[in-house]
TrEMBL record:
It comes from Thermodesulfovibrio yellowstonii. Binds 1 zinc ion per subunit. The lineage of its organism: Bacteria, Pseudomonadati, Nitrospirota, Thermodesulfovibrionia, Thermodesulfovibrionales. A motif ('KMSKS' region) lies at residues 298-302. ATP binds at K297. It is found in: Cytoplasm. SUPFAM superfamilies: Anticodon-binding domain of a subclass of class I aminoacyl-tRNA synthetases, Nucleic acid-binding proteins, Nucleotidylyl transferase. This is Methionine--tRNA ligase. Pfam families: Anticodon_3, tRNA-synt_1e, tRNA-synt_1g, tRNA_bind. GO terms for cellular component: cytoplasm. A motif ('HIGH' region) lies at residues 14-24. One of its GO terms (molecular function) is ATP binding. InterPro entries: Anticodon_Met, Met-tRNA-synth_bsu_C, Met-tRNA_synth, Met-tRNA_synth_2, Methionyl/Leucyl_tRNA_Synth, MetRS_core, NA-bd_OB-fold, Rossmann-like_a/b/a_fold.
Length: 630
């Protein structure tokens, strides 16, 4: 292998037609975990994520908001970028398919393939599904509808450009068979092989006439057509290296394309054959993970059960969320999200096992050793047990095959072993008998926690940093050298810290105060006509930021069928980030007013609790922005 080959990992680039949800967070955190682990091991890493901004879906979403597609994309991209920051995603670059260089590379590739005769113009007719932006044959349809989304299709006849994908069918089968690691998990690999072996592969229509789709990259050899959004999007993995990656390192081929199972065909078949036609080496691995359902149901806007990562991290913390996603289900299978399951994991694994281990140790070390750690190098049964576990966990195969839940299970075995070691050795008794033995025991516990911290760092970077500090290790970096039981550290001073993960009680729905009748004087009552003067609307928060110089005021851009700027005094209870994407209630026919010099064109509704804290009214199901409230 080329010594200068860096580790290159990608996520899908996300459509900017909607705000990010748990599914987007899932792929991105998974890539982050592996990127962090590889950096820890001393590899040069290029971790790429970004947004997919062309195509009909985005054009339509922009139109609905009365924006041009680029303006719309500029707003939506911020939602992804701020969420990645909040989730501690360590991406090295963020690509947008509207970047000029990306567009140029797509055109160069199209031209190259066209010149080689890999792209040809053909008359084509077929059944077209507009939402999916795909042609289907009659045979593909299920009861006359799109087999993917179940919606109506329309018959379209037109001339288009085709990438001659079919001729690579056998070469692709051979590649997948020769490289068991190419598509993972194995069940997905079998699925792709089954499909390739049983059906002739068609050619891929890579253009759309401009009158049907204007929002895309124009074909370099025919300006009457734009590029099919998937052809444009897949090229991002290649184009990014031309202008976003450090040029002193060789990155191609990618080590992992991380994707969800729904976009396996586009990657395993379209992308692989595109690369074959270009004569470029194929990626080492395409890994397709499963889907999250929510309390047993498919996540969907119409059910109103889409999990917003902002809400989860606000309530439970970033690391609890990151941990839960990868401990709860095996990466590759489908998983079910529920707050109850998340709280169980927090209380059992994080508060009890990990949190208590650290706190017990810190308390004992303070009491018996005045927080000092003396290094001992003798081998014990316990050190051997931990060393064995580290070897199992630090295995290339487990990490490269994304066996995150197994890795976490094994790390938790090490945590249990350390907890058991405390129970067995009873340091509080040893304290009275042998100070030297006590110092050894406490060193062993400290040393085990030190290694455990390195191992949990890719999953929970913030928690790892906190523990590192508590262990007195701020002067040292968290890296692979710290995975050895033997250590070059000469001494350390521990430091007590707050509970890492306070236990969470799941509250029952608070009893509503029934029967609290309020006397209302007749003259204070209003008529229905009075009420009808008030126009309340559902608003979706598109942007939020603090008003400079004010603790309380937040400036919101809200979609209520049209965009409105609203200034609200909710800054003490809410951060701007957690407001983005929420559906709120807006009084839309209030006279505009200025607050600290900033115009507010309406008011959001909120309740003030007895403690003076403000809670904003939200809509508990997905309802279109602008819907009236009565
Ligand atoms: N733009 C394309 C990808 C182009 S890559 C060259 C796209 N974007 S997407 O925004 O619709 O979806 C991105 C990812 O989110 C996919 O990997 C998809 O699997 C994932 N998920 C969407 N819903 C999901 C769940 N409910 N659960 C887990 N992941 C899900 O497709």
């Amino acid at each position: 292998m080329n010594q200068n080959k860096g580790f290159y990992i990608t996520t899908p680039i996300y459509y900017v037609n909607d705000i990010p949800h748990i599914g987007h967070a899932y792929t991105t955190v998974a890539a982050d975990i592996l990127a962090r682990y590889m950096r820890l091991k001393g590899r040069k890493v290029f971790f790429l994520t970004g947004t997919d901004e062309h195509g009909q879906k985005v054009e339509k979403a922009a139109l609905q908001r009365g924006k041009n597609p680029k303006e719309h994309a500029d707003i939506m991209v911020k939602n992804f970028k701020t969420l990645w920051k909040a989730l501690n995603i360590s991406n090295d670059a963020f690509i947008r398919t509207t970047d000029e260089t990306h567009k140029k590379v797509v055109q160069e590739i199209l031209q190259r393939l066209y010149d080689k005769g890999e792209i040809v113009k053909r008359k084509y007719s077929g059944m077209y599904c507009t939402p999916c932006e795909r042609f289907w044959t009659e045979k593909d349809l299920i009861e006359g509808k799109c087999p993917d989304c179940g919606r109506d299709v329309e018959f379209i006849e037109e001339e288009n450009y085709f990438f001659l994908m079919s001729k690579y069918q056998n070469a692709l089968i051979e590649h997948i068979e020769k490289n068991p690691f190419y598509i993972l998990p194995e069940s997905r690999r079998n699925e792709v092989l089954g499909f390739l072996k049983n059906k002739p592969l068609g050619d891929l229509c890579i253009s759309r006439p401009r009158h049907r789709l204007e929002w895309g990259i124009i074909l370099p050899f025919d300006e009457n057509y734009t590029t099919y959004v998937w052809f444009d999007a897949l090229v991002n993995y290649y184009s990014a290296l031309k202008y976003l990656a450090p040029q002193d390192t060789e990155w191609w081929p990618p080590d992992h394309h991380l994707i969800g199972k729904d976009i396996l065909t586009t990657h395993a078949v379209y992308w692989s054959t595109m690369l074959m036609a270009l004569g470029l080496p194929l990626p080492r691995n395409i890994f397709a993970h499963g889907w999250w359902t929510v309390e047993g149901k498919k996540m969907s806007k119409s059910l109103g059960n889409v999990v917003n990562p902002w809400e989860v991290i606000k309530k439970y913390g970033v690391d609890a969320f990151r941990y839960f996603l990868f401990r709860e289900v095996s990466f590759g299978l489908d998983g079910d999200f529920s707050e109850e399951a998340l709280v169980r994991r927090i209380n059992n694994d994080l508060a009890n096992d990990l949190g208590n281990l650290l706190n017990r140790f810190l308390a004992m070390n303070e009491k018996y050793m005045k927080e000092k750690i003396k290094i001992h190098l003798e081998e014990t049964e316990f050190s051997k047990e931990i060393i064995n576990l580290i070897q199992e966990i630090d295995s290339e195969t487990l990490w490269n095959e994304f066996k995150f839940n197994i890795i976490l299970e094994k790390i938790w075995q090490a945590i249990s072993s350390t907890n058991n070691y405390i129970a067995k050795t009873e340091p509080w008794k040893v304290a009275k008998e042998s100070p030297e033995r006590l110092s050894l025991i406490l060193f062993n516990i400290w040393n085990a926690i030190r290694i455990i911290t390195v191992l949990i760092y890719p999953f929970m970077p913030e928690t790892a940093e906190k523990i590192w500090k508590a262990l007195g290790l701020t002067g040292y970096s968290i890296d692979y050298r710290m995975l050895n039981w033997e250590t070059e550290i000469k001494e350390a001073l521990t430091e007590k810290i707050e509970q890492l993960f306070p236990r969470i009680e799941l509250k029952k729905e608070e009893q509503t105060k029934a029967n609290t009748k309020e006397e209302v004087k007749l003259e204070e009552l209003i008529s229905i006509e009075d009420f009808m003067k008030i126009k309340l609307k559902v608003g979706k928060v598109l942007q939020a930021e603090r008003v400079k110089g004010s603790k309380k005021l937040i400036k919101l851009i809200v979609d209520i069928g049209e965009e409105r700027q609203i200034v609200a005094g909710i800054g003490e209870q809410y951060s701007p980030e957690e407001l983005i994407g929420r559906s709120i209630v807006v009084l839309s026919n209030l006279k505009p007013a200025k607050l600290m010099g900033v115009e507010s064109q309406g008011m959001l509704l909120a309740a003030t609790g007895e403690d003076g804290k403000i809670s904003i009214l939200t809509i508990d199901r997905e309802v279109n922005p602008g819907a009236g409230i009565k």
